[in-house]
Amino acid sequence: MQKILIVGSGDIARRIFLRLHDRYRVYALLREPGQADFWRAAGAVPLVGDLDDRASLRRFSGLADWVLHLAPPPGEGQLDSRTRNLLAALSAGGSLPRRLIYVSTTGVYGDCAGALIDETRHCRPRSARAARRVDAERRLRAWGGRCGVAVSILRAPGIYAAGRLPLERLRRGLPALVAADDVYSNHIHADDLAAACFAALRHGRANRVYNVVDDSEIRMADYFDRVADAFALPRPPRLCRAEAMARLSPLQGSFMGESRRIRNRRLKQELQLRLAYPTVDAGIAEAAHQTETGRKPCSS
Description:
This protein is an alpha/beta fold. It is 36% helix and 18% strand. Helix 3 (81-90) runs parallel beside helix 4 (128-147) and helix 7 (220-230) runs parallel beside helix 11 (280-293).
């Protein structure tokens, strides 16, 4: 039986596990010991370790055939020390995994002024958090090439699902941009990202990047409007950029400073993925239906 190590134990990891648990031996790296009971009851083998503490990762060498790296970088700096620590642990004397999948972000492209781009677009990160993702990608691809491990990079945009929608933002009445200033945003449903991770384990090419985005071409304010309409909430007020930035936090405002439309041809052709939610309209409608019928979304 194939052995898979999942690094990062949040919402996406749990959705992936639902696709893996009956066919693979799954190990889940947990930072918090309190999460162990859930994963053990679900059928995984919980392993407590901290990516910020290299010594706590020593036993992972030779443990898994495949690795799913879902953990975010640290919250500051230009480098991803957590990915470095993980690679050091995986390389520490045991057999290496044959395949590693890393979930990165489309933020590595920076601002593309609304251009339609694909995976050949150069990375020009504008924020430190995106720069840390670029560092992780480069480190992983270099390690994979040097060690003979097939590394595939999945670049994901804004992840949404029931329980992951900007409802609180809408309730607070935070502004969106007027059409003249608005930016294109990109999205992927959490279930489709989980499916893409599984598809990459099966079909991902070595040293290859895949954009994991849906088919929507939608501006950010229009996305907020559609969520508001689906959940009977007021649409956000639309302000010019200067006025909106004065009311938003630096982090909230940073997402309104980058505009890009992203192709997903490789996702469909190479990973052979058929999106369950090809547009945000489909995903928002399903989330609203879950709320109406009282179905509990996968917790994050």
